[in-house]
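Sharing a chain and its predicted structure for anyone who wants a worked example. Both blocks are below, sequence first, tokens second.
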Amino acid sequence: MSAKVGILMGSDSDLETMKKAKETLAELGVEAELRVLSAHRTPEEAGGYARDAEGKGIKVLIAGAGLAAHLAGAVVAQTTLPVIGVPLSAGTLGGLDSLLSTVQMPPGLPVATVAIGGAVNAALLAAAILATSDAALSQKLKDRRKQMREKVLAADAKVRAQEQK
């Protein structure tokens, strides 16, 4: 099976965060590939990847970058595929600079943006997009939510039991 999600990062220093997106997708049975391509240092390669992604079977792109965080914008300028931006904390502003750079796209070039460092949520959003045409994946997402609910309810029961002592 070929990758359905392309996960890009501007630098290999972003790998620890961005590999969480690939791991989350793998848990759901979604193939993904990781690439290091910079909007500023390798603009031709980043643009070419975005232009060629659909032809390779990729359905959603995730782009993580810090500082000026132009990767998601550079990618969405080259494709009509859904692009999810992951702002990363890489400088003195704790990722706020990246968040603003990623979320402030001009009209006509949308980038869905998750929280600073939110690679797991980016993966889950990508999976939700794919699940609109994949019933099995949709069920996996529902099962994941059910497990989350059960975990919280178990924690609640434990706390309530301790409070009654």
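Comments welcome. Strands lie at 5-9, 32-36, 60-66, 83-88, 112-113.
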